[in-house]
Protein 1
Amino acid sequence: MGVAACDGHTVSVGVFDSGYGGLTILKGLREALPELDYLYLGDNARAPYGSRSFDVVYEFTRQAVFRLFDEGCPLVILACNTASAKALRSIQQKDLPTSQDPSRRVLGVIRPTVEAVPSITRSGHIGVLATPGTIASHSYHMEIAKTDPGIEVVEVACPLWVPLVENREADGPGADYFVRKYLDQLLGADPEIDTVVLGCTHYPLLYAKIREYLPGHIRILSQGGLVGESLACYLRRHPEMAGRLSHGGTCRYMTTENTEKFDTLATLFTGCPAHSTHIEL
Ligand code: DGL
């Protein structure tokens, strides 16, 4: 049971992404748990994270998580695959235990996505599409192996898909070339793939083109719904955390970039108007 937010004091779930992409995850969270309050932080000024080094992604993510803690969020979701791949473990194991309040929690998006894989694949051959950083970390491969070591995983980095989405070219004819390029690479590496994981927050915005070029029998897993269901399950298992969160159904946005730009793109990602506040990290 959460607390009502009627006195205007909200205790939100913090949702962090390098930029806009995490809004696809936020949508899934709000569909699964519409009663909760959310505070979204996009580090748009320093995005994309996808081709940054491990140390830089860890440091930027750590700053953002502690900013969300300072805003009163006891639970932060890393809605960014690159941050989940490169920073989550260090934050959970190094930073949280020595922080002011070690009962705060940080969760990522890779584990909830991977948990769905074994029940979906029939051939046991999976494709993972993600940023160069996520692919280089092999986080998906390792997590899938923990869930079912018999599953074959082919990982392909798609460095041009994020810029296509950010530049609003996802529906344009130029996108077809780059969508086909990486899908051909994936299917060329393993023709038995029957399930493809979209392991990057931006890729749901390319869904129509990905669907068009993938053979019809291949299932495509987008993360938003899976992460939403996983958080609902987590809060049922952790009533002490559920009880700390307020129930006002609100959503606030913070960005490290220009707010007008954020609000325009946030509307594209969520389909709802957004009014953000500028912050520095
Ligand atoms: N949010 C990132 C991810 O899911 C994509 C954008 C970026 O590279 O920062 O990996």
Note: Residues 17-19, 21, 47-50, 80-82, 131, 134, 162, 200-202 surround D-glutamic acid (CB under 6 Å).
Protein 2
Amino acid sequence: MAIIVQKFGGTSVADAEKIRRAAERVIKAVKNGYQVVVVASARGKQTDELIADALELNPNPPKRELDQLLSTGEQQSVSLFAMALDAMGYDAISFTGGQIRMITDSDHTKARIKSVDAERIHKQLDKGRIVIVAGFQGIDENENITTLGRGGSDTTAVVLAAALGAEQCEIYTDVDGIHTTDPRIFKNAAKVEQISYDEMLELTSLGAGVIYTRAVECGKNYDVKIHVRSSTEEKKGTIITHEVPQMEGVVVSGATVQKDMAKIGLVGVDNVPGNAAKIFACLAKAKVVVNDIVQTEVSPEKANLSFMIGISDLAAAKKAVEQIKDDIHCERIFVRDDIAEISVVGVGMRTHYGVADKMFSALAETKVNIDSITTSEIRISCIVSKDQAEQALEAVCVAFELDKPAEERAKKD
Ligand code: ADP
Ligand code: ASP
Ligand code: MG
């Protein structure tokens, strides 16, 4: 019997009515002959509320205790979900991450999954039960509860789909699929029918919060077909899959804005072998994830180096570079937390010219200054001032006609 994993996000299980509606989706899949594994997130804004509770008592809560607390949100959802299915006449059993041996490393609040006991789930499915698993959580080798990072239930779902050999992983959410950009910011954003793992990895790591980056990464690595779709409407959503030749025709598949980031610059660092290694060794030790590193030689003796980080890592990153400052003879450290990054992404960029020109012209016409630019094979990103972020994104979306479906925008040459 084929297995399907269905993940319901916070808004899709926010209250009793929504849980019932989600349960109906599950029952439909059962009636279609599937063995169903459900992954549920905490209800509504519960994770935010639990974090606020923690911060009220301790502005810097121990991460182990934070994970212990946050995991309760998902634990409530799964038991309620199982109760709803029971009331509707279906046999269901809920599990926490620990109960299905979702083993992670010990990096609290951003743990990575190492393995899962798929057998325990198979046994329950074979008894004819619907299995409901708490997303976002696991346990480390010492039985401490861990969480996977905000949005991490998506990862739970994709990892389970891979481990169980599921036919596909459905991500039910409050939008009807992946759009060319966040429809909350650019309301005319077009829905995308299908998108490659690589484009989606770029989009999510650049701020498209519709699905968690690690989930897409696992989907790519373990060949899991991911279907992002609406929890309220029946229609097909967006399929995330391997690249197919037609995708090359679409020059820009999506645009993003990322506001929760900061930039650190090290001015006048000694231009000698080993300094960059020293700086990034310090940052790695502090577990800071670094993006978009730029180093330029300003004289034979001196270089400037800057990099981007998530704003939540700013304090740790600042501390790390201050420790190394004198050792590398850095003249000055500057920090900017008033910036946003606007990006366009598309596999078609590899083979089509004029993308940079179009993006920079759109920003210039909107009088948005570009602080710095970075590129990869399939993306262009510009750092702009945070207070101009929305207008910059809108200008870029209009320039690339991201309100039109991909078929209309595709280049035939
Ligand atoms: P869930 O609680 O179901 O996990 P999320 O809030 O994590 O839902 O993700 C859904 C939200 O992602 C949407 O409401 C939308 O505003 C946002 N979003 C950001 N970028 C995109 C995009 N490119 N396409 C669709 N939605 C996006
Ligand atoms: N409940 C967690 C969060 O709000 C995990 C998730 O929703 O995926 O981030
Ligand atoms: Mg989410």
Note: The radius of gyration is 23 Å.
Protein 3
Amino acid sequence: MKTRHFLKETDFTYEEISELFAMAADFKRHRNHGTPPSLDKQSWGMLFFKNSTRTRISFDVGIAELGGHSLFLDKNSMQISRGESVADTAKVVSRYLHGMVIRAYDHSLLEEFAEEGSIPIVNALTDFLHPCQIYTDAFTIAEKLGESDLASLVGKKLVFMGDCDSNMANSWILGGAHMGMDIVLSGPPEYQPGEQILELMKNTEVRGSFEYVEDPVAAVAGADVLYTDVWVSMGDEAEAEVRKQKLAPYQVNLDLLNKAKPGALFMHCLPAHPGEEVTQEVLDTPNSIIFDQAENRLHVQKAILAVLGINKAQKHS
Ligand code: CP
Ligand code: NVA
């Protein structure tokens, strides 16, 4: 059986995502009674080239709850930081580990790791995509709509406000459209969806749609969900001042939220910068489900790991 990876939102079919959501809901409901040990006796590495709070902790806890063992691999103490190739690193760690969770700048590092190694690779965020976040967020919306049922997302309008040329925007385009949602992206023309994602979308069949709308007020009309992310992503720090100036008209404040559908949900992957991309008032409004999102990272990633871990176990049986 071919080793499966989770590098992008379309790596699982629509039907598989539906099953993942059911599994995540089950893990969440029964967390206090234990989880089937899908990663029993498995060791998973976690290699992070960027900072993380939610992703790192939720994977660490999730691997333990599935009966596995995780190793946090500090990039600075790995030979990869002294020039050892990605290919050699991938081949070597594949001899020890059952899977790797990697957060990196360049998406192609994960693709190369997956290609050269022989264990499942999970994308814990790259400059291009953040698929664990999008699966979790979609699950959280479905949960708020009722039964954690993927089908309930079909035709729902999610507006992503701010830096539309970012990993989160790209992931909503690919993941949201794959799951049948209608994704609208609103930000300054300088930060509209970039070539890499547009090229990928040309070659990807999806159930939903995506569209760029420059005017934030026009964009939010009829929105079921209003989503934003930081204006300065990890790696963009040198452009911080220019970005803050250009993106200021796209701040999510109560005035803008009130122009969406009544009762529209507010979401943010976090960390947030109150006063920049979102006001504290919006973060505190009852419409805000930011901490449910954060919690659900654990349940949804456990489901992703369980599927990849079971596949890995079968490979060796
Ligand atoms: N949302 C998210 O991925 O958070 P961390 O950067 O803290 O992992
Ligand atoms: N766009 C943000 C997401 C953080 C979870 C970043 O890449 O820094």
Note: The mean pLDDT is 96.
Protein 4
Amino acid sequence: MTASIRSLAADLRQGKTSAVELTQEYLQRIAQFDDQLNSYITLAPDRALTQAQAADERIANGDASLLCGIPIAHKDLFCTRNLATTCASKMLANFVSPYNATVVERIDASGAVTLGKTNLDEFAMGSSNENSFFGVVKNPWDLNCVPGGSSGGSAAAVAAELCVAATGTDTGGSIRQPAAFCGITGLKPTYGRVSRLGMVAYASSLDQGGVMAKSADDCAILLEAMAGFDPKDSTSSDHATTHYSEQLNESIAGLRIGIPRQYFNEQLDPKMTALLQTALVELEKLGAQLIDIDLQQTALAIPAYYIIAPAEASTNLSRYDGVRYGYRCENPTDLQDLYVRSRSEAFGEEVQRRILVGTYSLSSGYYDAYYGQAQRARRLIAEDFAKAFSQVDIIASPTTPGPAFGLDSKTQDPVAMYLEDIYTLAVNLAGLPGLSMPAGFYDHRPVGLQLIGNHFDEATLLRTAHQFQQTTDWHIRRPSLISGGKA
Ligand code: GLN
């Protein structure tokens, strides 16, 4: 069951298996293992089997893309028609969207089979998947550890082979950090590369949908199906897409990789430094050139992000008022009571904290001191990267400060949780693409190397990761939970 999309597509064409059989196999694995992980919120077996039947027909007619018949999962932040979209919140626990997200439409059109919707931190706010109304997700490499967040369900499901690949969303690291913690490959594309239509908004100027899979090759195939201009999303870019999966075999000889001094400094755990250095040497062996660079404004990323994201969240989440969408409290005494109780009863603690922080920083009198200042910091961060990309082609960094941390070890200390995002946030603030790929093990837990690209240069990130994955096997290892073996 460690099959790649290409090998499964070949098996489907050679009649070694069918999409229906494959779908049944994955549904069976979910039934067997997901009690331990809680990676899915909603399963869609009937819908999946209907899609699989249609996929088998397309394959038989010779009219099928590589994704046709491949069982995937969607983070439960993407709207799906006729299938619940909960955002892991009590607020939307019974919400069924009247339309599909563009990402879902495009993946459906490719013929892929949707097994279900994966768990996440409520409204994508979190770094551990402990903020879900539907319960904590566990890391398949160590059931006492978090899978990362917010796309922790997608990451755990891919790592445990409860789907072949999955969608995720990344506002400040939610694809890359759980990918690193679960030993898979995850790509957050450039802001605007993938349509946000039907992707429930958290922080609109930062949110971006992307892909999570075992390998860069699988990520490239899935991204190809999703990426591209969407006339229905005004922030979607009309910059031309490319055939990501066809450029993976080009060598990376001569590629200039920037190594930011501010990321590999004495604050990074020495064991992490050693592991990541080994991965960098591997890239050097492939012909890449490592160049020390500065990203002077790195320290601004956490404060800027944790002002801007809550500010945008506070306005985006004002639509959940007990009137138009979702949960409504019982027997309200008047309109004010309806608003207050619906929101207090249905939003979790972290979501309420962010709404409060956001409302405060946007209020008159504080706007300039907080929100205005954070926007200035954001511009400095973007300029920092622009300068770096005049010297190098991509940048390499840790994805996270360490491996997956213990369940409940940071839930009482929100700031400690926010500090976990130190290496991922700046990428979203600058709108750049970022990828995390498996780069070794810290004790028995996976760690990721992050690759950051220039705007719309997803192809170079995927190619670098693919080349790395041709000479390393970190991405092939599977947790003992499912393989019976050890990493
Ligand atoms: N951990 C960050 C946060 O809590 C990022 C989340 C995300 O990317 N959706 O906001």
Note: DSSP finds 16 helices and eleven strands in the chain.
